[in-house]
Amino acid sequence: MEMPVPNSAIIARKARVVERLQSVLPADAVIFDTHETRAYECDALTAYKCAPLVAVLPNSTQEVSDVLRICHEEGVPVVPRGSGTSLAGGALPTADCVILGVARMNDVIETDYDNRFIRVQTGRTNLSVTGAVEEHGFFYAPDPSSQLACAIAGNIAMNSGGAHCLKYGVTTNNLMGVTMVMMDGEVIEIGGAHLDAGGLDLLGVICGSEGQLGVVTEATLRILHKPEGARPVLIGFDDNEVAGACVSDIIKAGVLPVAIEFMDRPCIEATEAFAKAGYPMCEALLIIEVEGSDAEIDHQLALISDIARRHDPVELRQSKSAEESAKIWLGRKSAFGAMGQINDYMCLDGTIPVSSLPHVLKRISEMSDEYGLKVGNVFHAGDGNMHPLILYDANKPGDLELCEAFGAEILKLCVEVGGCLTGEHGVGIEKRDLMHVQYTPVDLDAQMLVKDVFDPAWLLNPAKVFPLDASESRRAVTLAAE
Amino acid sequence: MDITTEDALVDAVRGATAPLCVQGGGTRGVLVQGDVLSVAGLGGITLYEPGAMTLVARAGTPVAEIEKALAGENQRLAFEPMDHRKLLGGQGTPTIGGVMAANVSGPRRLSVGAARDFLLGVRFVDGRGAVVKNGGRVMKNVTGYDLVKLMAGSFGALGVLSEVSMKVLPRPEAQASLILVGLDEVGAVGAMAQALGSPYEVTGAAHDPVLRRTLLRVEGFETSVAYRLDQLRALLTITGAEMDVAVAKASEDMWQEIRDVACFAGEDGDVWRVSCKPSDGPAIAERSGALAWFYDWAGGLIWLRTKAGHDLRANVGRFGGHATLVRGDAATMARLGMFHPESAGVARLTAGLRAQFDPRRIFNPGLMEQAA
Asked: In CATH terms, is domain B6-170 a member of 3.30.465.10?
């Protein structure tokens, strides 16, 4: 993965930059020793590493503003970081950058159950937002798999999703307002405890902008009362095309489950060997969860089961209790770990129109043979978000590159059938150079026009999202100004 | 000029030498000086996959045509777009492009989200005449910046939509409304908060202070609706309100009247729409100087009728939210502005985006711009 050549003039000014940052932050909030900065050399895309020039851990919006103002004056690139759980390399540093981590800013500022929102500092983890309100029966809906560790700041940057977004939407549908610090240090407020924008929907474009438009320090999030209960049904099929048709029929029948998860045979086999959840050995497994009171759940599961039976399932198991539900979910929740037991893996997250599922699975299986790399598929079937897990051996020379090439082929296929490169992980550096596949130069330019307005000097997370050749002339303006 | 293709739209934008008034069906009350650039001729549903809950249509497609196609598959536009014609006395045909450009949502916005939350992808022509696509037709998509949200509610100020793709939802089997009678405004907002803070999935919460009538809508399978009505009734007994129930068509009709602000149709004066924190609603309405008002979105949306030319924003003063002038004569619109003034930082970003996407300043000049 190509990254821009670090600016040696900035690296040469390290002492001065450190000194200025120390003048506005507590001593322990400025990390510049080369042994210590290595802690920030990568995020969850561990294949790529680069220690930053400096890492800072501010405690307040004011401190974030001071840091950004200084970096702006010094012409130093800034890479914002939440908890560093990005699978796309969204928080990968460059050698000439300041990593701005918001992890110390994790306070709850306000909870308001009457108006159904919570306001938090964005270093707070996703799960601890729910933790702050669950005593009152409430929860924060977006639930990325990394929710124990990932920060709201990163969720906003990547517009994170989760297994339950079929019903509740992703981050952008649950974000009501932000306090954001611009690259020049200006603090602006957008949105709040009310709904919708009074003018242009800036909140909508900030969410998912991968830390390139500003640093979000506080967020107002919608909270909801928990449902009375939830239970899944597990359905096995001998043909993934039939499984896809079953999903489509369920949706057409007017049932809107909270989650529809799909696993293919390689994934079922790996999971069974690892977690022994008692899954049937078949081509496709669906786990469909519905919510409500006991009677409401029974009614919906009965409807789903009736539809499924018309598709000759090899297995149909309706959960009647919390224990049975846990057992049904056990395998799905262990899927990534199970694949990890077999080998290193790369997890993709392209999205496809649900109707293309059989075709895409068939092509992935053919490509798996061509590349000689195994792949298992987990899939949020209700919304078309795939998670092919490609197995490779990190210690075998050339295997990572082979795996990346295979991954790129899969993502191109997703775009070809009318889908997209990434459904919930973000572009980062991982899919940066594939953006040309999905977007024309004009489409990419339109997106970069937005960055020009928010960050005219292109100092915020500059080498991400856009192919380097597409953003080169804009980034060069900064270099020329040095 | 009747524009029936995206290419023709590009030509019209490139060839424009004077300001353009960008329109779909022209039913949303936008008053702008300029040559009308309408996409009403750019119609037709281009893709509908009920099993994937997605529909793609050209911007000029009538909303009614889309609703008809959806009804055929027992689906709907869940965000319940308002029809402005009754309130504004307009003729025209509402288009899906207009709905999205104005981010028009109805009572169900409270529970399922706004038009912008259902918009999955756009094609638009920017002020330079470039055709831009963003998003797509799949429900989860974080590939690049979300210009889809930026275009929703931009009122044509950044570009002219040529095609939109949307998420649609199943039409529930049944609906009913619990009617509470006798609550004052503060009491009603409290009762609505209690209902929304329950697990019973309320999809509409409105209050009419004149009738002292509070409506709570539930939708879903027949048995589930009955169960949740009972639960809500039990939950709200404490309010002391008299309770009644409206089912099916009777309930639907009441919500359509709320959606379309039917009670202000044919009445004199200006009409304002305030979005605020729900519990702030009664105090804002109280000091607004309005002649009449009612609440939607559990108190978070207030529709107010004032005497002509009344500066509601001046009366209300600073609050968290915004006030939009929906109906007023040209002079009032020009004097007060349709949209709420933005903070200096936000206004600068808005102006910057407009300058980028419409460098010749030909789209709806004056609209959504800060009065100098």
From this structure: yes
CA distance A260 to A351: 14
Q: Which residue in the block uniquely carries the two structure tokens 């197995």?
A: A391
A 10 A CB-CB count for A269 gives 16
Longest Cα–Cα distance of chain B, Å, equals: 65
> What is the tens place of the pLDDT at every residue in B260-286?
999 999 999 999 999 999 999 999 999
A212 pLDDT more than 50: yes
Rounded to the nearest angstrom, the minimum Cα separation between A147 and chain B is 18
At the top level of CATH, which class does the domain A108-225 belong to? alpha beta
Q: Which residues contact A434 (CB under 8 A, 6 or more apart)?
A: A408, A411, A412, A421
Homologous superfamily in CATH for domain A230-432: FAD-linked oxidases, C-terminal domain (3.40.462.10)
Tokens 């009449």 sit on residue: B292
Rounded to whole angstroms, the Cα distance separating B237 from B360 reads 60
pLDDT score, position A254: 86
> Looking at chain B, which residue has its C-alpha nearest residue A167?
B112
- The segment(s) of chain A belonging to CATH 3.40.462.10 are 230-432
Count, residues in chain B: 372
B357 with A193: Cβ contact below 8 A: no
Nearest to B153 among A201, A255, A453 (CB): A201
Per-residue model confidence as pLDDT tens digits over A191-206: 999 999 999 999 999 9
Nearest to B138 among A295, A351, A449 (CB): A351
Q: Report residue A11 as tokens.
A: 């690296």
| pTM for this prediction | 0.97
Name the DSSP letter for residue A4.
P
Closest C-alpha to B144, from B131, B154, B133, B135: B135
State chain A's maximal CA–CA distance in angstroms.
Answer: 71
Question: In Å, how far is B38's CA from the nearest CA of chain A?
Answer: 21
The DSSP element (H or E) to which B65 belongs, if any, is: helix B63-72
Q: Which residues contact B306 (CB under 8 A, 6 or more apart)?
A: B269, B270, B271, B272, B288, B289, B290, B291, B312
**Contacts A444 to B, Cβ<8 Å:** 144
Q: Which two tokens stand for residue A331?
A: 């395998």
> Radius of gyration (Cα) for chain A, nearest Å?
23
Q: Chain A residue with minimal CA distance to B75?
A: A254
Considering only alpha carbons, which residue of chain A is nearest residue B223? A296
Q: Identify the band that residue A479 occupies on the pLDDT scale cut at 50, 70 and 90.
A: low
- CB distance B153–A248 less than 8 Å? no
Size of interface A-B (CB pairs under 8 A): 273
Confidence of residue B1 (pLDDT cuts 50, 70, 90): low
For chain B, residues classed under CATH 3.30.465.10 are 6-170
In chain A, residues under CATH classification 3.30.465.10 are 108-225
Task: For residues A24 and B204, give the distance between their C-alpha atoms in angstroms, rounded to a whole number.
Answer: 49
Cα–Cα distance for residue pair B271/B88, rounded to 1 Å: 9
Sort strands A284-291 and A230-237 into parallel, antiparallel or unpaired. antiparallel
Is the Cβ pair B147, A446 closer than 8 Å? yes
Residue ranges, comma separated, of all CATH 3.30.70.600 domains in chain B are 174-259
CA distance, residue B267 to nearest chain A CA (Å) = 25
Query: What's the gap in Å between the CA of B143 and the closest CA on chain A?
Result: 5
How close is the nearest chain B Cα to the Cα of A100, in Å? Answer: 21
The nearest alpha carbon in chain A to B132 belongs to A443
Does B174-259 carry CATH code 3.90.70.10? no
Strand pairing category for A54-56 and A98-101: parallel
Residue of A189, A200, A226, A359 to mutate for B, most B C-beta atoms under 10 A: A200
Class of domain B262-336: alpha beta
Q: Which of A143, A156, A196, A460 to mutate to test the interface with B (most CBs of B within 10 A)?
A: A196
